[in-house]
Amino acid sequence: MNLKNLTPIREGSPSCKFCAGVGFLLEENVKNSSSGVLLLCSCVGESCPCGGKAPYMVYDESQNRMLPCVCHNARMELGKVEYLVKKAGIPARYKYRTLDRMDTTELSFLAAHDWANDIVIQWKERERIQQGLYLWGGTGSGKTLLACAILNELILRYGLECKYAKINRDFLSTIRDSYQKESELHGMEQTIKKQFADVEVLVLDDFGANKESDWANSQLYDLIDTRYEEEKVTILTSNIPPTDWKDKAEGRIFSRLMEMAKQIHLDCPDYRLSHSAFGTH
Ligand SMILES: [Zn+2]
Ligand SMILES: [Zn+2]
């Protein structure tokens, strides 16, 4: 698939019929990969004298020095996208999934999809978008897919640093580990919190999936409050309606959510089951 409409990168041949000038492609039918891989396009890689060996430089006899290979810029840009997607921790099945290839026949999904599109398209005019999104619905309603698609698009379009995290596994549990003397995370509480606070766009998946303790709720509040104060965008997915937060953490989480997040209820039947084959080819 060519990525022309999803990225401003133009390191390929402008007339190339495969990449439309981007320099690399998303190859979707790849064994052992549910969401495809990025491949250098033949318009830059085919006759390339460096043979794809980093740092993609070749010796130029007439100038008696090393010069960037024809493939250099395309490979660097491809590598940067791969790096950002990997660093973001997007689950394998949602890597490189984008908003343009989703079934939006369900009305509630369409509304959420529209809003996701707005964040992505209007990113540069930040005052026009809300600081958060609270996507809630049952298992398989497509909320994680949508949240990850927003991250993929922000990486492809703007090269942003993003992070995907499951609230228990990646946030609360790692903080708990940092209290354990034998853990390699011992003493790292502030570092972990800073990573979550600083990243430009954060997806918190399964927000409030478990009955949390007062300690956990106060951690959650601190996190979304810090991000709110620092004007960072936070996307939350949850099984529970926002009103369920009213009696937790003295209502502080609820009032923050009301202020910062657009709330969207996905009430489609199991999106994952009914669309399991969609978007994989
Ligand atoms: Zn090409
Ligand atoms: Zn080369």
Summarize the structure.
The chain has 281 residues and is α/β, with parallel strands linked by helices.
Describe this entry's structure for a reader.
This protein has helices at 42-45, 72-88, 107-121, 143-158, 167-177, 189-198, 214-229, 252-260, 271-274, and strands spanning 24-27, 37-40, 57-60, 65-68, 132-137, 162-166, 201-205, 233-238, 261-266. The chain folds into 2 domains: 24-88, no CATH class; 92-274, 3-Layer(aba) Sandwich (Rossmann fold). Helices cover 36% and strands 16% of the residues. Helix 5 (167-177) packs antiparallel against helix 6. Strand 7 (201-205), helix 7 and strand 8 (233-238) form a beta-alpha-beta unit. The protein is globular. Bound molecules: zinc ion (2 copies). Residues 48, 50, 56, 69, 71 line the site of one zinc ion (ZN).
What ligands are attached or bound here? Answer: zinc ion
Query: pLDDT under 50 segments (min length 5)?
Result: 273-281
How many strands in all? 9
CATH class of the largest domain: Alpha Beta
Tally of domains: 2
From the structure above, extract its key features:
single chain; about 280 residues; alpha/beta; Rossmann fold; 5-stranded parallel beta sheet; two-stranded antiparallel ribbon; 9 helices; 9 strands; about 35% helix; disordered C terminus; binds zinc ion; P-loop_NTPase; Cell division protein ZapE; ATP binding; AAA+_ATPase
Task: Give the topology.
Elements lengths: L23 E4 L9 E4 L1 H4 L11 E4 L4 E4 L3 H17 L18 H15 L10 E6 L5 H16 L3 E5 H11 L11 H10 L2 E5 L8 H16 L3 E6 L13 H9 E6 L4 H4 L7
Parallel strand pairs: 5-8, 5-9, 6-7, 7-8
Antiparallel strand pairs: 1-2, 3-4
Helix pairs in contact: 2-4, 3-4, 5-6, 6-7, 7-8
The structure holds zinc ion (ZN) (2 copies).
GO molecular function, one term: ATP binding
Protein name: Cell division protein ZapE
GO biological process, one term: cell division
